[in-house]
Amino acid sequence: MTASTEEVRDLEIVRIGILTPYLFDDVRDRCDEEYIKDQEERYGYDRDNLIQVPQMITSRHRVLIETPDNCAGPSGFPQLVIHGSTRPAEERVESIKGSGIVVARYSIFYGGPSHYSGSYPEDAGYALDIPKSPDLVRSLLTHEGFLDGLVSREEGKIRSALEEFGSGLEEPVLVTPYLTEALAVQR
Amino acid sequence: MEDECPMERFLRAMNSPTGFMKPGEKFSTASARLRAKGGLRAFFAPGVGFEDFNEGVFCKYLLVVEPDSGLRREILSSFEESVFDCYGAGTFEDAKRVLDVDRKLDYLVVADRFPQSRGGVPEALADRLVVHAREHSPIERPNLRCFGFVESESGLSVPYRGIIRKGESGVRDLYDMLIADSEGGAD
User: Fold this and answer.
1) In chain A, which residues have their Cβ closer than 8 Å to the Cβ of B27?
2) Structural domains of chain B, ranges and CATH numbers in brackets
């Protein structure tokens, strides 16, 4: 969607932190084809990820995609962080439990516990569980209802938006019991 | 570094391209981790035996089935610098999933009691899981080495390579036994 500079200025900003390289990294410049194929088959790497996407514009929101390579947004924390579930990643998420940051898990362990730790996502501090698909993430981050919910931090809005978003999907975005706890913290 | 505030660590990860793993490092096997330490230090990691050294084996897969998540985490952490690449599960079904999906296992440590599925009551399922792992799962290593990590041995009847009692030094005893067994070579 294109919009004039003035129109963009009037949009509500939503900051999304992407902390999983599966969504923003391109390994083609440093890894051979066999390695990439292994990553694709076993760990869900998708070459067509969000690497070229610094922001998305919807009719009501300007979605800033922040990654470690591109984190020049306003100070403060993103409304949503999408994080992987490697061992150190999970530990990092767990270390900020209680901070109120809404973290979504993006992992091949979608729908179940981590095979590394045996922990379920809510135990580690993930509030949402996203299937490993860049296309789904792109769609989710342009869903107006979901973005409204993130900005307002209203659980009901987030849940009903995700229900609407997920209708018809084989693997919808899952809400974990931790979402309630995360949103209870005033930010 | 150990005293660093978790939020500071999280912010560093948000702002640093080298703050965390790239795709491929996720399964940062013990092998890769040890090699990253540099040179011959990889060969002297706990659990690497003489035969391993000769055959270039610096990674052995260990699944820990323990329903207490804190204890499970303690056990998994204790093996972090060793030859073992660790996985965890808290229930019979979760353990089966790890076996069926990951398909690699050299060592299995089972508590004497754990639930069939999440939210269930603990049952004496250790033997049943060992039999499943040896006879019905698609794991690729037939000479699976099984150890019990137990409150009581009374429910165990299939052969175990070792039994360790839970208790004050249980985690340490388990670590010592597995490292010694691993360094001792093949049967």
Assistant:
1) 43, 86
2) 22-183 (3.40.50.2300)
CB contact under 8 A, B6 and A96: yes
* Chain A residues with CB-CB distance to B90 below 8 A: 113, 118-119
Regions of chain B where pLDDT drops below 50: 1-2, 17-28, 38-39
A40: enclosing H helix or E strand: helix A33-43
| Inter-chain CB proximity A99 and B7 less than 8 Å | yes
Query: Chain A interface residues facing chain B, Cβ-Cβ under 8 Å?
Result: 17, 19, 21-22, 25, 27, 31, 35, 39, 43, 45, 66, 68-69, 71, 84, 86-89, 92, 95-96, 99, 101, 112-120, 123
Q: Record the tokens describing residue A81, joined without a space.
A: 């962080």
3-state SS of chain A: helix, strand, coil percent to 5?
40, 15, 45
Selected residue of A42, A43, A80, A92 to mutate for chain B interface (largest B Cβ count, 10 A): A92
Global pTM? 0.83
* pLDDT (tens digit per residue) in B37-87: 544 555 667 887 777 766 767 678 899 999 999 999 999 999 988 888 899
